Each structure stands twice: as structure tokens, then as C-alpha cells.
Amino acid sequence: MLVKNAADRLIETKIKNRSFEPFKGAKKYSYRSKVTDLMTALKKCGLKDGFTLSFHHQLRNGDFVINQTLEAVRELGVKNIHMAQTAMFNVHQPVIDFIKEGVVNRIEGSINGVVGDYISKNPLDFPVILRSHGGRWAAVKTGELHPDIAIIAASSADERGNATGVLGDNAFGPISYSQVDAIHADKVIVVTDTIVDYPCEYQEIQERYVDYVAQVDRIGDPDKIMSGTTKITEDPTKLGIAHKCVDLMDAAGIIKNDMVFQSGAGGISLAAMKFLGEKLEEKNIVAKCATGGLTKLIIDIYESGHVKHLYYSQVFDGYSVNWVKNNLELPADIGHYADPTSKGRTIDGLDTVVLGATEVDTDFNVNVNTHSDGRLLHGIGGHQDTAAGASLCIITCPIFRKKNPVVRENVTTITTPGDVVDAIVTNEGIAINPRRKDLIKKVKGKIDIVSIEELKNMAYDETGGPVKPNRGNEIIGLTKWFDGTLLDVIYRVKE
Amino acid sequence: MLVKNAADRLIETKIKNRSFEPFKGAKKYSYRSKVTDLMTALKKCGLKDGFTLSFHHQLRNGDFVINQTLEAVRELGVKNIHMAQTAMFNVHQPVIDFIKEGVVNRIEGSINGVVGDYISKNPLDFPVILRSHGGRWAAVKTGELHPDIAIIAASSADERGNATGVLGDNAFGPISYSQVDAIHADKVIVVTDTIVDYPCEYQEIQERYVDYVAQVDRIGDPDKIMSGTTKITEDPTKLGIAHKCVDLMDAAGIIKNDMVFQSGAGGISLAAMKFLGEKLEEKNIVAKCATGGLTKLIIDIYESGHVKHLYYSQVFDGYSVNWVKNNLELPADIGHYADPTSKGRTIDGLDTVVLGATEVDTDFNVNVNTHSDGRLLHGIGGHQDTAAGASLCIITCPIFRKKNPVVRENVTTITTPGDVVDAIVTNEGIAINPRRKDLIKKVKGKIDIVSIEELKNMAYDETGGPVKPNRGNEIIGLTKWFDGTLLDVIYRVKE
């Protein structure tokens, strides 16, 4: 059909079976400042009962944003919020009150510490769903977890919504968890205490995704943003375990030029990285790439010339936060780092990763989520992702802690299945997963290995064996494997 | 239902009405090199008749990738390919043969020069669809234009598919058109002549989106990658027009601190930028931001301290390509720059842009696509996007060229509607769109203005008026406004 469009042209609305809409007129595109306060932003985003709000955890135990947001939600009289944070810490203790008041009734995200302890004893409306970093990214990408509003903490942002974690008094390193939320959430609010001139000089989150910039007094407490989990242990037992990790890597033949490695943020893992750095120096080896969280320790290895590139998704200490301002290197958002639905990730083919555990079992299953009394106290983080990505996944732990056997018949909760765990390094020796015959053959004669059963027996001898947790029947939490399948359930703990 | 999953745990498959799939086992994730040859890559991507292949144009008239890809397609015996390139140049003359042979039968993308000339006279199976940069991004994002395979030229890439246009002998600046193709195409092939060690040090395209890395001898001819459109004119008439642009900006009061400006790549536009730079210097003014294509000219203004930030989506000359390696500043992919479906773009609220025209009419409509004889010889580029984004959109042109009136009653093809065109600056004076009463008031008494009808009359007097093109009835092309609506149709030209 011939019609005259708004430009006064005669055009067809159907050409060879394809339909066309006539031009309706053109207008100028301008911009408005998106800066407002948090309450107004939430209101304008249409906040209502039952909404899912997502948050990142890069302000760690110094974060003020989750609490402030929930206060605004309460003020607005809205209930039954589903939290979809990437992690939660002790600073989020007020969330317990928000749960009691009915402001929050579900959580799909990692919980560390007091909130986990509370929920372990007081089940929510629906079990807490725990996912790895990569698993959560995939869940948001595929729509399994859909944030109605993404709340993105930024240490600086401009009035149009370009935002960063690199600049400002509360800098915490490049924002790397929230890109997928920014793209898929219906509405996006950047929360910042520092409005900078347009254009913001770093832009991990860009204006194209942002509806509002909520200005608050302070997004966090910089002293607590840099978490205590990044201190290297001084405990001689733990240092001994760390040394054994490097001995194992060496025996396995992976300490060589162009190796790619990662450490977790725990004390033993960091110490192992320190000793690995020394080994690289001693053998005059240059690694290709270090991935994962950035610390001064890793930067030192980089600056000594013993690792060529740094890929990092988190920045753990103040030194590193300052360093990245001038040496951005290769920041990787979590999708680049660990999205299991992607066509390639920075952690695929890691040579080695050193990770922690609250418990391990004789099937090499690892628990990092619950304590042996059953309480849910930790998130999954990148544990699953890197374990499956690494050729040599090393789990470190003492065989027992106080009167509790860490090496045991069955872990309380499976975080990472034994299928992808290659070695368990303890104060009483190194056990290698019998599935890894190749690895056993490689290290034979170079280092001593023990069976996991021996380690378990020693642990049971010293402690009298595990004490059964006092559990109820209600499921309070779930661990998912990063492909979305259900790995384990976590039961209520009776007080 | 209680089932035992692959981790030997008893789990429920339904919890409070939500279904869960049991864990089925975990495996290690590794990586393989994605490097292969172009033909193998196409085959493995399942290339078949009727597929849509997308390309970017950042190698401009030095591009070898489109021709090489179509040769491989021919070799594989595949027909009826739909081309979805961002632009095409004279170097792509072989496409005419591919059309004649039936290898290519549709084009949705900009065509410059010989291929456009050919199609103007020899209609394809379906009209060529022309979109602006931002309009094309939106069309791929929304699925209106769906590439089966995205072919992404890169001047360097690593074996996993991390790719850049910044490094290598044929560097052309950050890849900025292809992110949307990488995300939405079913399959993605990076084509490069330079495989670098993993990890590639710049990564505008990341491995997560890439299926194959096709290694070719050469992706292009560096001498021609840097296009001739970026030379500043020496023609005194054109220089006069450029000077008038700056006079108009000054009269309109936009030459002030924190202004944001852009130029097109044409000779007059670049000259106008040079004079704007001189004016900034003379008035000691510091602009906030320059957007668009990067040239030495713009870098000089930046380095002189008269513009604070550079946002750029293309890099036009060798000097700038080298410069960005060490001074990345703020590269913006086309989605950030101009996606009309986004929540904010770098071009929103531009203070001014200076653009060219093949024709303008008394309704201030602008044509950049066809010549007055009706032949389709140019793409839309960012013309529509920036015209609508700028508060003061200035079109520059002489009132006639040879015996052809440029200012006329009706443009042959509408590229950018008069609704968003504010002023037309010619060798015979400046016409301001009567819709812009505010602008007319502002400049009154400061500069002379003429009516567009006067300019048209002068042009007609000098040339004897327009000659009607010798057109057929078949529609060979369409121009779309960036919102996807149909702006104009382009007819066959009889030989």
C-alpha cells in the first residue's frame, strides 16, 4: 500500500512480503541528569511488593548500599523483597530486621556470617539459592534469576550514569559483577557518593543501561571495604600447608614458563601465592597470567617480571585499588571470567588454583558453605568455577579444627563435587584424587602422598569423629552447580 | 520427588512449586585453540544458502576481508548470501561479480561507490536497506537484522578469540561496530592476520563470543585503511564555508567552556573543526568532549588542552591509530555512541555537529545517499544519529556542484529529515531552519542569514535547475530512520 509518510514521501508499507512502518517524524535527542536520591529512584523505577533487587558485593564488609536501599524500601512501605545480591557480609546484620519486618522474604545470593546464621535457624519463605560467580552470571543472563531493579554501587558516577569503582574516596576496583544485571534488569539504579563531571573517566557501567543515579552520603566504609580475608596467615601450620601446595605444583610439573594461576582470597591460598612467587623467582620462570582477585602480593610478582599479565575481577586491598588507576591491565567482568554459557572464559585451562574448605570428604567433595554444625555461613564465590577451570585444583585445609574433623566421610554440604577436585593439601599430608592417575604418576617419588582415608582416620582419631548437626526437616538453602542443576540442600539448624 | 543426584545426595526436584534439575556430574573446563582458516571456519559454522553474514567497515577502502570471505563462500558452493556489512567501499568491486554469480543476493548495509552504482542499475532480489550506525546497532539488537555468522576483522587476536583493532601491522583503532554482532549472531568468526600470545592486550571483542579465529595472510592494505575522506580541504570556497560554520557556532553562543562537539569525516567538516580549535585557543575555552571519528586534528586540540576528553568510535588516520595505543581515553562502541534504544548515548545533547550533504532541500531535508542522477553511492553513517543528537546540527555544502543544484526544491533521497537539521551553511550564505526561531533570534545582528529559498533560487539561476533523473519503477534501496521506520525509497536508474 502506498502511503505518505511524515517526510512527505510516498512509500510502500509492504515490499516483497516484508512490512515496513512509515516514518512518523524525527525529534532531537537530548539528555537529562539522572541524579536523584535513592528513595525517588526506587519510586520512579516502580518498586513494588515482591520485586527482586540485585546488588554486587564489591564493597564487602564496608558496604552501606544494601542497608540503605532496604531502609528506603521500608520507608516506601514495600514488602516481600527478593534479594539477589552477589554476596552479603556481617555489615548486613540489619537485613535480619528487614526479614523480621517482612521487608525481605527471599534471598537468591551468597550470604556470609550473621545473616546466614539467622536464616539457618529461621527459614525464609523459600530456600536461599546459592550460586557460584559464574553460575549467577549465567542465571541472570538466561533469565532464571531476573532482577526487577539492579542497584549498582559505584565509587564515582557522572550525571548520565557512567559509573566506576576505580575513582573516588570509596574506590574498590573495577565494577565487575553488575554488567549482566545492568543489561537484563528492567530498571537500573547506580548508587554513588561521588558525582564527577561528565564523562566519568572510567566506565565499567555505561549510561546506556542506567535509569537513575542515586546520590547518597556514603556508599561505604573504606577501612572495611578492604576485607580481612586478604591477609597472609602467620600460623606456622597454615604456612606449612602453603609450602606443600607449591611443592605439589612443582612435582606436577606446572611451574614453568607461561603457566596461568589463581589464588583464592583466604590466608593459606595467599601464602601459597607468595611462595609460588618466590619459586618463580628462584627458577627464573615467567608465568603468562594470574587471574582472580588482585592483591599487592600478585602485583609484586607482576612488577618483578614473573607474570606477564593480570586478569582480575576483584581488587582486594588498598594498594591494588590505587595501582589499577594507573595500570589497568586486563580487568575481566565476571562474564568474561567465568560465565559457563559463554564460548570461552579466562579461567578455562587455568594451570592451578588454590582454594580453601570448611570440610572435605573421602570422595573429594568440598564444602565451603556450611560449618559442621550445619549453619550456612559462607557463599560459593568462584570456588566451583575455578575448580572446574583448573587442571590442578588444590584444596587446602587442616585435617581438623578444634574438636571438629575437617576431613570426613561426608561433607555437610557439597559446594564443589569431587569430580573436579584434584588434590587436598593438609597439615598431615597431601591426598590426590584417585581419579587423577596421571597426576599420581607424575608426582610419585617427588613428594609424599597419603590416602584421603588416612587423613580422615587421623582426623577422627584426634577428634573422636564428627558430631551430627542438630537439624530440622525444613530446607533453608540450596547449592547449585554452575550449570543450574541442584547439587545439595541445606537444612534448618535447631537452636 | 526425592531423587539421588550425581553427587550422591538426596534432593527434591520440586520445592514449593519451583522445579529443579538434579546435578548430573561435573567436568573440567579447558580450552582449545580456535585458530583455523577462513574456509574451515565458515564450514564449521554451518554456512549454508541464504545465510546472513555481517562485517564491519573499519578497514575502509583497504579491506580484504569481505572479498576473501565471499571467495571462500563461492569455493564452498554456497549461494544467496545476505550481506550485512556496516559499510562497503570501492575495494569491494568484486562483490559485483559475486552478485552476478548468485553468491550474494541481498544487502542490508551501507554501500559506497561502485557496488552502489551497479545495484542502482541492477536491482537485487530485495532492496538494499540503509541504516545509520545507531539504527543498525538497534536492528541487530532487536533481531530485525539477524546475522547467522558475524565476520569480525581484527588486526590482532589470540588463539582463544580475544581480538582488537589497536595492535598489529594493519591496526585501525578499537573495533567498535561489531560488539552487537558478536553478542547476537549465531556464530562468530574473528578474521586476523596477526595471532598474538594469549591474552591479547586489547580486547574489544572477547573470547566469550567467538567460535573461530580465521587466520589469513593479510586483512587489508594499511595505506588504504586510512581513508582519503579525512584530508582537510584546500579549496578556498570550502574553507570559506568552514569558517562560516564557526561564525555560526559563535553567534549561537555555543563556543563556551564545557561544549561538546563532533565533526563528520568530510573535508569541510574537518576544516570547520580546525577553525573551531583555533577559536577555542583564541578565546581560551576548554571544551568538555569531542565525539565521533578521531583524527590528528582532534588529538592536537586535545593535547593543546582545549578539549578535556575524547570519545571516539572510529580512528581515521595513522597518527591517531598509533596514538590510541598509548592514550586510550574513552573509546565508545557504536551502542554507547548512538544506539537509539538505549537509556543514554554519548551523542545525546551534543552542542554541535558539522555534516555534509549531496543535496539539501527547502524543507531542510538532507540527502547523503544518492547523487542527483539517482545513483546510490554513499551510506548514512552517523548522519542521522548526530543530527538528532546535536542542539545545533550544521549541514555544509556549496549551493551547486558543476551544473547541478545542491540546494533544491526536493532532495532525491531523504537521509536526514529537516525536523532535526538546524542550519545549512553554503558558499552563498547561511540558512537557518524556520522551526528554530530561538536560534534565529540568537544570531540576529551577529551574522547574516538568508532564506533557504534564496539559496535555492541562486542555485537554480546558476544551473538552470535540477535535471530529472532517468529512473525506473523498481525500488533498489530504502533509507530507514534510526527508529526502524521507512523514510524513503530509492529507484532504479536506467542506463
Describe the structure concisely for a colleague:
Two copies of one chain form a homodimer. Chain A is an alpha/beta fold and 495 residues long.
Show the helix and strand layout:
Two copies of one chain form a homodimer.
Chain A (H helix, E strand, L loop, with lengths): L1 E3 L5 E3 L1 E2 L2 E2 L15 E2 L1 H7 L7 E4 L9 H11 L5 E5 L8 H7 L3 E4 L6 H8 L6 E3 L2 H10 L6 E6 L1 E2 L5 E2 L14 H6 L2 E6 L19 E4 L6 H4 L10 H16 L8 E4 L3 H17 L3 E8 L1 H8 L3 E6 L1 E2 L2 H9 L3 E2 L2 H5 L11 E6 L3 E3 L4 E2 L15 H7 E7 L3 E2 L2 E2 L1 E2 L14 E4 L2 E4 L4 H7 L5 E2 L1 H12 L7 E10 L5 E8 L2
Helix pairs in contact in A: 8-9
Number of domains of chain A: 2
What is the CATH class designation of the largest domain in chain A? Alpha Beta
The mean pLDDT of chain A is: 96
From the N-terminal CA to the C-terminal CA of chain A, the straight-line distance is 75 Å
At CATH's second level, what is the architecture of the largest domain in chain A? Answer: 3-Layer(aba) Sandwich
* Rg measurement of chain A, Å: 25 Å
What proportion of the residues of chain A form beta strands (DSSP E)? 15-25%
Count of β-strands of chain A? 31
Q: Kindly report the greatest chain-chain contact and the residue count on each side.
A: A-B, 78 and 78 residues
Please estimate the helix content of chain A. Answer: 25-40%
User: What's the multimeric state?
Assistant: homodimer
Helix/strand structural class of chain A: alpha/beta
Largest sheet of chain A: 10 strands, mixed
Unreliable runs of chain A? none
CATH superfamily of the largest domain in chain A: Glutaconate Coenzyme A-transferase
What is the global morphology of chain A? globular
CATH topology-level name of the largest domain in chain A: Glutaconate Coenzyme A-transferase
Number of discrete helical segments of chain A: 15
